[in-house]
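Per your request, structure below.
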């Protein structure tokens, strides 16, 4: 039943000259505008000058711009060409194994030197910091994919980097730490004793696995208290999503080469950046009338879109960031220590939250065991070993392909293969040796975390 499509290549490659030279900003096309980030002290929109204390001005400008297209600087293009355009591949062996009439295409972001999509924005952010004369950056990392990407990007532009790595991942993924060190960065486990916020958390919760919310607090504190240092974030904010749209823009050109258009576009969601990267260019088509489904996939242990509330909340645990309009489980929520470290974030990008609230996309959640099962099937058919985060997208792809088989319907599925899992084999080991379990998140835990947000401004 799978389609042979003779003549259609397994790998659909774009020439370097066709790599996009502009990023796509969905703010220009949103039916309802994004609510602004608020200053928690005044309840008023944040003054851009305050943001300039933590980010270079060019990045603050990108955070706010309403321009539809933003030019990619030539030096960034040069660096991106190291691994871009990335291939669009057809997962024919998986189609065979599932005996499905669905065609499964994936945008392979695992081919970057750091192994994931995160390098797309890391290069751009390091470049803008360099242009602004910044000599040091502080950041957090969950699974280590972002930290290692930024380590390489900082090395490219001669900037020092300190990475606060969520403690559980620091333990689970020692090779990511080594990769960061190889590319010249300093990496410590978070909570650490290097910041006031880290010391406070360690006093209150000495055994905490850590969380992205805690690590962000430490990195922001470091940036505002250290000379000539700025902060960089690997997801969530508008400029990060903007830089990632190169994924979907390339995918549109590659789908056109084989004369196809996706019926459904799928991505896993942590803070929302790889999802937005692949989905927003297609969402633009949808806003202008095209019939395409857009599906975000999150872990059942950290179900921000599917069980969170749409409200203003801090981006970090200790309230150092502005209040962001987003789906959130509450900034005090410390997600259980599942292996997909990059998806353990209490909030969701404001832009993704907006389009979800407006019914322009769907969301679903998947349990950890189902994800690993999907990842193993993928590895045994397609060969490549996916990152634990990426297996969430794969699990949803398999469900869609099985549905197509049951309904006897053709369907083109496109998803973002956000990273490889070759440095995440500890998770595969835990799964294969039967040590992993699902986690049913009790509603009481979400309600309790959200109590801390009771007095925050409501969204209009
Ligand atoms: C391979 C991979 N995929 C997905 C994610 C989730 O991040 P985001 O939602 O910003 O794409 C991460 C985060 O670390 C990651 O490493």
């Amino acid at each position: 039943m799978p389609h042979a499509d003779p003549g259609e290549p397994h790998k659909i490659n774009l020439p370097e000259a066709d790599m996009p030279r502009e990023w796509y900003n969905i703010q220009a096309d949103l039916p309802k505008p994004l609510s602004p980030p608020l200053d928690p002290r005044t309840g008023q929109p944040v003054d851009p000058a305050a943001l300039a204390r933590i980010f270079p001005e060019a990045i603050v400008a990108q955070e706010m711009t309403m321009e539809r297209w933003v030019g990619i600087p030539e030096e960034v293009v040069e660096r991106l060409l190291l691994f871009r355009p990335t291939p669009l591949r057809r997962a024919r062996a998986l189609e065979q194994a599932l005996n499905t009439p669905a065609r499964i295409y994936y945008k392979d972001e695992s081919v970057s030197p750091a192994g994931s999509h995160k390098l797309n924005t890391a290069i751009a952010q390091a470049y803008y910091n360099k242009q602004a004369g910044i000599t040091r950056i502080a950041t957090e990392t969950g699974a280590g994919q972002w930290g290692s990407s930024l380590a390489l990007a900082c090395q490219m532009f001669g900037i020092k980097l300190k990475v606060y790595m969520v403690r559980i991942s620091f333990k689970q993924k020692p090779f990511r730490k080594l990769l960061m060190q190889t590319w010249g960065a300093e990496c410590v486990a978070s909570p650490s004793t290097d910041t006031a916020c880290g010391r406070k958390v360690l006093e209150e919760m000495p055994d905490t696995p850590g969380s992205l919310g805690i690590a962000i607090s430490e990195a922001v504190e470091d940036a505002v208290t250290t000379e000539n240092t700025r902060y960089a974030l690997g997801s969530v904010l508008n400029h990060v999503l903007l830089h990632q749209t190169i994924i979907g823009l390339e995918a549109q050109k590659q789908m056109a080469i084989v004369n196809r258009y996706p019926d459904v576009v799928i991505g896993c969601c942590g803070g929302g950046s790889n999802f937005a990267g692949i989905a927003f260019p297609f969402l633009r088509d949808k806003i202008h009338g095209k019939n395409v489904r857009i599906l975000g996939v999150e872990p059942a242990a950290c179900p921000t879109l599917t069980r969170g509330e749409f409200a203003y909340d801090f981006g970090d645990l200790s309230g150092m960031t502005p209040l962001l309009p987003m789906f959130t489980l509450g900034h005090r929520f410390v997600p259980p220590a599942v292996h997909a470290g990059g998806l353990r974030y209490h909030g969701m990008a404001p832009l993704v939250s907006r389009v979800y609230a407006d019914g322009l996309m769907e969301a679903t959640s998947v349990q950890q065991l189902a994800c690993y099962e999907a990842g193993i099937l993928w590895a045994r058919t397609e060969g490549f070993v996916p990152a634990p985060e990426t297996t969430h997208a794969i699990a949803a792809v398999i469900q869609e392909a099985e549905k197509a088989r049951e309904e006897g319907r053709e369907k083109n599925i496109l998803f973002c293969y956000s990273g490889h899992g070759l440095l995440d084999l500890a998770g595969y080991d835990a799964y294969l040796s039967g040590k992993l379990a699902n986690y049913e998140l009790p509603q009481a835990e979400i309600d309790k975390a959200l109590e801390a947000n009771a007095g925050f401004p409501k969204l209009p």
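The pocket of pyridoxal-5'-phosphate is lined by residues 116, 142-143, 145-146, 235, 268-275, 342-343, 387, 389-390, 418-419 (CB under 6 Å).

Regards,
D.
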